[in-house]
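step: validate -> pass
step: tokenize input -> pass
step: predict -> running
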Amino acid sequence: MHPTLPPVFDGHNDVLTRLLPHGPAAAAARFAQGGEGAINLPNARAGGFGGGFFAIWIASPSDPAVKFDQMTRASYDMPLPEPVPFEAARRSAEDEIAVLEALEAAGSLAICRSVAEIRAAMAAEKIAAIFHIEGAEAIGPDLAELDGYHARGLRSLGPVWSRPTIFGHGVPFRYPSSPDTGPGLTGAGERLVRRCNELKIMIDLSHLNAAGVADWRGFPTRRWSRAIRTPMRSARTAAT
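step: predict -> pass
step: emit ->
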């Protein structure tokens, strides 16, 4: 940890997606040694990176060069990617979770389930990692997977990325545009939010469209999880 600067707590990173092609063991070694990517262990220690939200994200087939080229134009309108089938999403999520767990096993970070665990990790000069899922394609309608991921440390969840799921609808890559782009949470989405409240999993509204945010606001138990909300009250409110 940097000797004078206060620790940085990051609201979102994609380091697990970047490390995924290497497999868990090689990914852990690259992270510890300072391989490619914006975040690795040597850079984190040098820059005062205390921790953050480590995202599990299911990729859609695409050409990033084409996407970035379009997004540099004065206006653009890219269609939403197709929904990802559940079983393919579940396998992909398990692969990324295996990378996260390998980083913990190697001693590079700690998967934190509470404020106390975040503070303990920082005191031990380990990266404090919040297990986050960006887009809930790997969770089925009965929510059984949600409970399993929670037991492994999940504490933050975005129901959608910028594509539809069984839980709701994401906003497209379009500019200029409004977030008012379709229907809100589905019945399964409402059950997902209720169960997340019971488990104290924070709901991430990023990528959710306006109707989905409005539906979320209607929940009487709307709040961030007490398990992790104290030190990061402003971490993930881009869609509110």
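step: describe -> The longest strand covers residues 49-57.
step: cleanup -> pass
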